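*** Backbone structure tokens ***
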Amino acid sequence: QLQLVESGGGLAQPGGSLRLSCAVSGFSLGYYVIGWFRQAPGKEREGVSCISGYDGTTHYADSVNGRFTISRENARKRIYLQMNSLKPEDTAVYYCNLGNSWGQGTQVTVSS
């Protein structure tokens, strides 16, 4: 059974960095697209970034482009989201997504 488990969230100051990790179990990443979404209080869940398992093509939301970097390690069944130059508006619960499956989320709070 496919399971996604996020980690790495926490509190960061504006301008700081965090690295999120998503561990995949019960499934081979293969050529599937896997990505990150986030949901801030009172807002809808939105796509942040995704990466193709076929050719490594990446996509980013305009709001994070140039600041966040997504990567994957198929052998370790993990994907990562390196978040730099964090802003208070990045505060949200971040979710790992593969197909119809979601992780439990990890809280990211950006505040001074």
